[in-house]
Amino acid sequence: MEISLDVLKKKNCKLTKNEATNIAYMISPTTVYSIGSAMPSADSRCRCTPPAYVSSKKQKRIVSFPGLCPHQEVSPGNKRCGRKQRDTEPGDYRNPCCARNTNAVMEHIRTTKVEQVKLLDRFSPSNKSAFGTLYLTATHLLFIDSQQREIWILHHHIATVEKLPLTTTGCPLVIQCKNFRLVHFIVPKERDCHDVYNSLLQLSKPVRYGDLYAFSYNPKQKESEGVLGWQHIDLKEEYQRMGVPNSYWQLSDVNRDYKVCDTYPRELYVPITASKPIIVGSSKFRSKGRFPVLSYYHQAKKAAICRCSQPLSGFSARCLEDEHMLQSISKANPVCRLMYVMDTRPKLNAMANRAAGKGYENADNYSNIKFQFVGIENIHVMRSSLQKLLEVCGTKALTANDFYNGLENSGWLRHIKAVLDASVCLAKAINDENASVLVHCSDGWDRTSQVCSLGSLLLDSFYRTIKGFMVLIEKEWIAFGHKFSDRCGQLDSDSKEIAPVFTQFLECVWQLMEQFPRAFEFNEDFLLQIHEHVYSCQFGNFLGNCQKEREELRLKEKTHSLWAHLLGEKSKYRNPVFDKNSLRTLPFLEPNTIHFSFKFWRNMYHQFDLNMHPRQSVPSLLLKTIDESKCLEEELKQLKIYYSGVGGISPQLVTDVYQNTGHMAVASWEMKNMASPM
User: Which pLDDT score is estimated for 274?
Assistant: First the structure.
């Protein structure tokens, strides 16, 4: 049998079946080609379809290559793929480098297709289920049911895979995702279930960065656009917007080679009176070398938010350079010499760290300093709390009382409250007292990032815009070394390092949006999309644990930026009730942090549970209404133009008929009847 494969748009290129298979696998190992089907046009073709197809005189036969893309498995002559919305686009694998990466991944796939798989709906009152086909590709797990509805799950989104004991109906396979999707399959044959289970275990836990999706994701855009995408956020411009450098703060190059602190960025802002020996000496006295640096400068108050890690003080150690460093920060504020040192840990935890030679600052050694503990728990407590919350969310047929009891017992909202309480405390110190604040936790990259970023957002309305929020994340989380790779479980590493620190930050922002719905330019979908891609590994922004790692991985050359993607769809993420005047009239937000003011974020933790009663937020509903109104106005405009030349029909008559019918097709039929001669 011969197959005609139009790889490079050359006609009548005859290849043997093996040659066609090898070439197709090299170009796109995630594609299925249908025999006899015409090649889709560039506009209608799915993104993961390369410019190639297979044809044969034999009809209604499917050729499946390894790592198939099932929505290309269509009947002959069907030119459009009938794919529906998925959680993440599968991407394009025409890059030869991508093919090499994908070939390595394909070795883990033991079976690409399993039929007659049952998908259980955990919230259906009648134990509703759907039958369909399960596919494994190089990047996604895909389930297509008998109604052609699709569920796409990125391998990197998978947190856990569990194969339950065999039952009379088949072998259960439960998949828990990092974006809080939970799917429960019943696979007919235990051997197939075992193959899928083992494949997903390896595909969801890559061992090196080069196997992550971002290095093979190749959207349809020019190469120059990919480079420009990384230039949307410039932190030097952000510090200039804040008013630094100035007569109190300077840009230091002490860390230009990452020799002082390898988890800090190259460019750091420090007090102008802090010399290099003071900086180096302070770094040696701080955990991981993370010495005090500028995080945010309030130009009007002349006060600063600074961040660092815990001191290596033990029970009695001191460091003169570190004491001078804190004194320099205090002197950099000409309005108020009193400075707060905010330790975000519970005091008991900080005291316990003294036994390991760490701990907290001794008040006797620092002048003009006021110390405060705010009691945010560590990553292990947060991870356990989230697990309890998800257990409550996954329990079927709970009464409202049982649900709220479970929510309370998980402690999740108490932790959200603790983070916001600390952020409000920081913001009020600057806004009300003009005092500078130094924030730290243990290593200065988890709780410190939460409090510094939220405090800045409360103080500065710029961070409540779409662009400003991206800048805030880039500055406080990415540049200052929040360990995204470890905390999000990007690679197969220590599971005890995984923690929902960034998820908590996004939820705190959502809680603020609920209290101040007109103060934010972005909507809830914006937060959900960022959360989605923090775990998807589709873009390079959140890969790695620090800037040094990202430079070594050459992410700006080899991957794409999420910010360019989000800015390209800015209209989708705009809050329709946003008040632009709030940027001026509400420079400082002071939220209510009483316990009952915190809500359960349903659209985060139940966003994939479609059979639950939908509860669309008011801003989202308003945005949808606005979009529909624009579509109707455009239809009306086209209708007026179409019938403008018909005698005796005025534009006003068209408008009246259209408003009465409410639909262009009906209005058009009415107008034809009116225009046709008797």
Answer: 97
Residue 370, SS3 per DSSP: strand
User: Is residue 145 part of an annotated ligand binding site?
Assistant: no
Residue 416 assigned ligand-binding role? no
Strand partners, 136: 141
- Estimate to the nearest angstrom the gap between the alpha carbon of 150 and the chain centroid: 21
Cα torsion through 618, 622, 623, 626, rounded to 10 = 180
Q: How far is CA 634 from CA 356, 586, 664, in A?
A: 68, 36, 10
Phi, psi of 556 (to 5 degrees): -70, -20
Tokens 């020799």, residue located: 259
Angle (nearest 5°) at CA 8 between 7 and 11: 85
Q: Tell whether 530 is in a known binding site.
A: no
CATH classification for the domain delimited by 96-216, as one of 3.40.50.80, 3.90.440.10, 2.30.29.30, 2.30.30.100: 2.30.29.30
On whether 447 is known to bind a ligand per the annotation, the reply is yes
Instruction: Identify the CA nearest to 244 among candidates 546, 582, 475.
Output: 475
Q: Tell which residue, 434, 456, 437, 572, has the closest CA to residue 512.
A: 456
**374: three-class secondary structure by DSSP:** coil
The C-alpha atoms of residue 96 and residue 107 are separated, in whole angstroms, by 17
Read off the pLDDT of residues 630-639 as tens digits, 9 standing for 90 and up: 888 887 777 7
Which residues are catalytic, by number? 441
What tens digit of pLDDT does each residue of 244-273 get? 999 999 999 999 999 999 999 999 999 999
Contact (Cβ atoms closer than 8 angstroms) between residue 664 and residue 639 = yes
Average the pLDDT over each of 195-204, 297-306, 531-540, 668-677 and give the range with the smallest value: 668-677
Q: For residue 304, give the H/E element and its range.
A: strand 303-308
* Helix or strand run (H / E) with residue 325: helix 320-331
pTM of the model: 0.80
Which residues, at least 6 apart from 125, have a Cβ–Cβ distance to it below 8 Å?
none
